[in-house]
Amino acid sequence: MSANPVAPSREALNEQQFGGSAALYVDSPVHARGDDLAQFATLAKRAAGGRVIDLGCGGGHVSYAVAPHVGSVVAYDPSAEMLAAVAAEAKKRAIGNIETAQGPAESLPFPDASFDAVFCRFTAHHWPDVRRGLREARRVLKPTGFAVFEDIVAPEQPVFDTFLQTFEMMRDPSHVRDYSMTEWVEIVTQAGFVVTGVTRRRLPLEFGPWVARQRTPEVMVAALRALFATVSADVRRQFDIRANDDFTIDPVVLELSPL
User: How far, CA to CA in Å, does 240 sit from each of 55, 150, 164, 243, 246?
Assistant: First the structure.
Protein backbone atom coordinates (compact mmCIF):
# COMPACT_ATOMS: atom_id res chain seq x y z
CA MET A 1 0.00 0.00 0.00
CA SER A 2 1.42 3.39 -0.98
CA ALA A 3 1.87 6.10 1.62
CA ASN A 4 -0.48 9.04 1.69
CA PRO A 5 0.92 12.11 -0.10
CA VAL A 6 2.28 14.86 2.12
CA ALA A 7 -0.13 17.79 2.22
CA PRO A 8 1.44 21.13 1.27
CA SER A 9 1.82 23.89 3.84
CA ARG A 10 -0.47 26.92 3.60
CA GLU A 11 2.41 28.96 2.16
CA ALA A 12 3.23 26.28 -0.42
CA LEU A 13 -0.43 25.94 -1.34
CA ASN A 14 -0.75 29.68 -1.96
CA GLU A 15 2.37 29.71 -4.13
CA GLN A 16 1.12 26.65 -5.98
CA GLN A 17 -2.29 28.20 -6.63
CA PHE A 18 -1.15 31.69 -7.56
CA GLY A 19 2.50 31.58 -8.57
CA GLY A 20 1.88 29.77 -11.84
CA SER A 21 -1.16 31.95 -12.57
CA ALA A 22 0.53 35.31 -12.08
CA ALA A 23 0.28 36.40 -15.71
CA LEU A 24 -3.37 35.36 -15.83
CA TYR A 25 -4.17 37.61 -12.87
CA VAL A 26 -2.31 40.56 -14.39
CA ASP A 27 -4.32 40.15 -17.61
CA SER A 28 -7.67 39.11 -16.05
CA PRO A 29 -10.46 41.51 -17.12
CA VAL A 30 -12.33 40.81 -13.86
CA HIS A 31 -9.33 42.02 -11.84
CA ALA A 32 -8.00 44.68 -14.23
CA ARG A 33 -11.23 46.64 -14.67
CA GLY A 34 -14.18 47.78 -12.59
CA ASP A 35 -15.83 50.71 -10.87
CA ASP A 36 -14.14 49.59 -7.66
CA LEU A 37 -10.68 50.41 -9.06
CA ALA A 38 -11.88 53.91 -9.90
CA GLN A 39 -13.15 54.15 -6.32
CA PHE A 40 -9.75 53.06 -4.96
CA ALA A 41 -8.03 55.67 -7.15
CA THR A 42 -10.35 58.42 -5.92
CA LEU A 43 -9.83 57.45 -2.28
CA ALA A 44 -6.06 57.34 -2.80
CA LYS A 45 -6.06 61.10 -3.41
CA ARG A 46 -6.58 61.47 0.35
CA ALA A 47 -3.02 60.11 0.73
CA ALA A 48 -1.49 62.42 -1.89
CA GLY A 49 2.29 62.41 -1.54
CA GLY A 50 2.14 59.63 1.05
CA ARG A 51 3.34 56.04 1.23
CA VAL A 52 0.69 53.34 0.85
CA ILE A 53 0.60 49.54 0.77
CA ASP A 54 -1.36 47.25 -1.54
CA LEU A 55 -1.84 44.34 0.85
CA GLY A 56 -2.04 41.01 -0.97
CA CYS A 57 -1.54 42.80 -4.27
CA GLY A 58 -2.15 39.80 -6.56
CA GLY A 59 -1.89 41.07 -10.15
CA GLY A 60 -1.15 44.58 -8.88
CA HIS A 61 -4.24 46.35 -10.20
CA VAL A 62 -4.81 48.42 -7.07
CA SER A 63 -1.13 49.44 -7.15
CA TYR A 64 -1.42 50.62 -10.76
CA ALA A 65 -4.66 52.49 -10.01
CA VAL A 66 -3.46 54.38 -6.93
CA ALA A 67 0.18 55.00 -7.93
CA PRO A 68 -0.52 58.24 -9.88
CA HIS A 69 -2.18 59.76 -6.80
CA VAL A 70 0.35 58.96 -4.03
CA GLY A 71 4.04 59.29 -3.33
CA SER A 72 4.91 55.58 -3.34
CA VAL A 73 3.25 52.16 -3.28
CA VAL A 74 4.47 48.93 -1.70
CA ALA A 75 2.94 46.01 -3.62
CA TYR A 76 2.96 43.25 -0.98
CA ASP A 77 2.14 39.58 -1.59
CA PRO A 78 3.21 36.10 -0.42
CA SER A 79 3.89 34.94 -4.00
CA ALA A 80 7.33 35.73 -5.47
CA GLU A 81 6.10 34.98 -8.98
CA MET A 82 3.14 37.32 -8.56
CA LEU A 83 5.44 40.10 -7.38
CA ALA A 84 7.77 39.55 -10.32
CA ALA A 85 4.79 39.87 -12.66
CA VAL A 86 3.70 43.09 -10.93
CA ALA A 87 7.19 44.59 -11.17
CA ALA A 88 7.35 43.73 -14.87
CA GLU A 89 3.91 45.21 -15.54
CA ALA A 90 4.75 48.40 -13.62
CA LYS A 91 7.88 48.79 -15.74
CA LYS A 92 5.85 48.16 -18.90
CA ARG A 93 3.40 50.88 -17.85
CA ALA A 94 6.26 53.24 -16.92
CA ILE A 95 5.07 53.48 -13.30
CA GLY A 96 8.14 54.31 -11.28
CA ASN A 97 6.83 54.61 -7.72
CA ILE A 98 5.86 50.94 -7.10
CA GLU A 99 8.17 48.70 -5.09
CA THR A 100 7.50 45.08 -4.13
CA ALA A 101 7.84 43.18 -0.86
CA GLN A 102 7.08 39.55 -0.07
CA GLY A 103 5.41 38.00 2.95
CA PRO A 104 2.14 37.03 4.64
CA ALA A 105 -0.46 39.60 5.70
CA GLU A 106 -0.35 38.34 9.28
CA SER A 107 3.31 39.35 9.75
CA LEU A 108 4.16 42.61 7.99
CA PRO A 109 7.91 43.46 7.91
CA PHE A 110 7.32 47.18 8.47
CA PRO A 111 7.56 49.43 11.55
CA ASP A 112 4.50 50.80 13.28
CA ALA A 113 2.78 53.72 11.53
CA SER A 114 4.66 53.19 8.25
CA PHE A 115 1.83 53.96 5.83
CA ASP A 116 -0.64 56.73 5.10
CA ALA A 117 -3.12 54.23 3.65
CA VAL A 118 -3.65 50.47 3.45
CA PHE A 119 -5.46 49.04 0.42
CA CYS A 120 -6.61 45.43 0.09
CA ARG A 121 -8.72 43.98 -2.74
CA PHE A 122 -10.04 40.39 -3.04
CA THR A 123 -7.34 38.94 -0.78
CA ALA A 124 -8.47 38.63 2.83
CA HIS A 125 -10.48 35.47 2.13
CA HIS A 126 -7.14 33.66 1.61
CA TRP A 127 -5.59 34.69 4.93
CA PRO A 128 -5.27 31.86 7.49
CA ASP A 129 -5.81 34.39 10.32
CA VAL A 130 -7.83 37.36 9.08
CA ARG A 131 -8.05 38.90 12.56
CA ARG A 132 -4.29 38.96 12.93
CA GLY A 133 -3.97 40.35 9.39
CA LEU A 134 -6.33 43.23 10.21
CA ARG A 135 -4.43 43.94 13.43
CA GLU A 136 -1.21 44.12 11.41
CA ALA A 137 -2.87 46.46 8.91
CA ARG A 138 -3.88 48.71 11.81
CA ARG A 139 -0.38 48.54 13.32
CA VAL A 140 1.42 49.75 10.18
CA LEU A 141 -1.16 52.48 9.51
CA LYS A 142 -0.52 56.02 10.75
CA PRO A 143 -3.07 57.36 13.25
CA THR A 144 -4.11 59.91 10.63
CA GLY A 145 -4.36 57.33 7.86
CA PHE A 146 -7.17 55.21 6.42
CA ALA A 147 -7.73 51.73 5.02
CA VAL A 148 -9.86 50.35 2.19
CA PHE A 149 -10.72 46.64 2.13
CA GLU A 150 -12.69 44.94 -0.63
CA ASP A 151 -13.72 41.31 -0.70
CA ILE A 152 -16.56 39.00 -1.58
CA VAL A 153 -19.13 39.21 1.20
CA ALA A 154 -20.94 36.05 2.27
CA PRO A 155 -24.73 36.02 2.64
CA GLU A 156 -26.02 35.96 6.20
CA GLN A 157 -28.35 33.00 5.43
CA PRO A 158 -26.58 29.69 6.25
CA VAL A 159 -27.63 27.79 3.11
CA PHE A 160 -26.30 30.52 0.79
CA ASP A 161 -23.14 30.88 2.87
CA THR A 162 -22.51 27.13 2.74
CA PHE A 163 -22.89 27.06 -1.04
CA LEU A 164 -20.50 29.99 -1.49
CA GLN A 165 -17.77 28.55 0.75
CA THR A 166 -18.14 25.12 -0.87
CA PHE A 167 -17.72 26.20 -4.47
CA GLU A 168 -14.92 28.64 -3.55
CA MET A 169 -12.85 25.85 -1.97
CA MET A 170 -13.64 23.35 -4.72
CA ARG A 171 -12.28 25.81 -7.24
CA ASP A 172 -9.34 26.96 -5.10
CA PRO A 173 -8.12 24.93 -2.09
CA SER A 174 -6.25 27.96 -0.74
CA HIS A 175 -9.61 29.61 -0.02
CA VAL A 176 -10.25 30.12 3.71
CA ARG A 177 -13.53 32.03 4.06
CA ASP A 178 -15.67 34.77 2.53
CA TYR A 179 -16.92 36.70 5.56
CA SER A 180 -20.42 38.11 6.07
CA MET A 181 -20.97 41.79 6.81
CA THR A 182 -21.69 40.89 10.43
CA GLU A 183 -18.33 39.11 10.63
CA TRP A 184 -16.49 41.92 8.85
CA VAL A 185 -17.78 44.59 11.24
CA GLU A 186 -16.73 42.47 14.22
CA ILE A 187 -13.28 41.74 12.77
CA VAL A 188 -12.40 45.32 11.83
CA THR A 189 -13.73 46.71 15.11
CA GLN A 190 -11.65 44.26 17.16
CA ALA A 191 -8.61 45.23 15.05
CA GLY A 192 -9.00 48.89 16.00
CA PHE A 193 -10.91 50.31 13.04
CA VAL A 194 -14.25 52.00 12.57
CA VAL A 195 -16.25 51.59 9.35
CA THR A 196 -16.75 54.98 7.68
CA GLY A 197 -18.11 53.84 4.31
CA VAL A 198 -19.70 50.78 2.70
CA THR A 199 -20.15 50.22 -1.04
CA ARG A 200 -21.93 47.08 -2.22
CA ARG A 201 -21.79 45.79 -5.77
CA ARG A 202 -22.82 42.73 -7.80
CA LEU A 203 -20.08 40.99 -9.78
CA PRO A 204 -21.08 38.72 -12.70
CA LEU A 205 -18.53 35.98 -13.40
CA GLU A 206 -18.07 33.69 -16.38
CA PHE A 207 -17.54 30.13 -15.20
CA GLY A 208 -14.89 29.19 -17.81
CA PRO A 209 -12.39 31.99 -17.13
CA TRP A 210 -13.12 31.73 -13.39
CA VAL A 211 -11.81 28.14 -13.19
CA ALA A 212 -9.10 28.72 -15.81
CA ARG A 213 -7.42 31.43 -13.70
CA GLN A 214 -6.93 28.90 -10.90
CA ARG A 215 -6.09 26.02 -13.24
CA THR A 216 -8.80 24.04 -11.45
CA PRO A 217 -8.43 20.31 -12.26
CA GLU A 218 -11.01 18.90 -14.66
CA VAL A 219 -12.36 16.53 -12.03
CA MET A 220 -13.16 19.52 -9.81
CA VAL A 221 -14.60 21.51 -12.72
CA ALA A 222 -16.96 18.60 -13.38
CA ALA A 223 -17.86 18.46 -9.67
CA LEU A 224 -18.56 22.20 -9.64
CA ARG A 225 -20.85 21.91 -12.64
CA ALA A 226 -22.66 19.01 -10.97
CA LEU A 227 -23.07 21.08 -7.80
CA PHE A 228 -24.42 24.07 -9.73
CA ALA A 229 -26.89 21.79 -11.52
CA THR A 230 -28.37 20.32 -8.35
CA VAL A 231 -28.80 23.30 -6.00
CA SER A 232 -32.23 24.59 -5.03
CA ALA A 233 -34.14 27.28 -6.88
CA ASP A 234 -33.49 29.70 -4.01
CA VAL A 235 -29.74 29.23 -4.34
CA ARG A 236 -29.93 29.65 -8.12
CA ARG A 237 -31.75 32.96 -7.67
CA GLN A 238 -29.38 34.21 -4.99
CA PHE A 239 -26.31 33.60 -7.15
CA ASP A 240 -28.05 34.27 -10.48
CA ILE A 241 -26.77 30.98 -11.94
CA ARG A 242 -27.15 31.24 -15.71
CA ALA A 243 -26.34 29.36 -18.90
CA ASN A 244 -22.87 27.75 -18.92
CA ASP A 245 -22.91 28.02 -15.10
CA ASP A 246 -22.04 31.71 -15.16
CA PHE A 247 -23.05 33.30 -11.84
CA THR A 248 -22.94 36.46 -9.72
CA ILE A 249 -21.37 37.17 -6.33
CA ASP A 250 -21.35 40.19 -4.01
CA PRO A 251 -18.25 42.30 -3.38
CA VAL A 252 -18.22 44.99 -0.70
CA VAL A 253 -15.78 47.88 -0.28
CA LEU A 254 -15.20 48.92 3.34
CA GLU A 255 -13.66 52.30 4.08
CA LEU A 256 -12.01 52.22 7.50
CA SER A 257 -10.45 54.74 9.87
CA PRO A 258 -8.31 53.90 12.92
CA LEU A 259 -10.06 54.21 16.26
Answer: 30, 21, 13, 10, 8
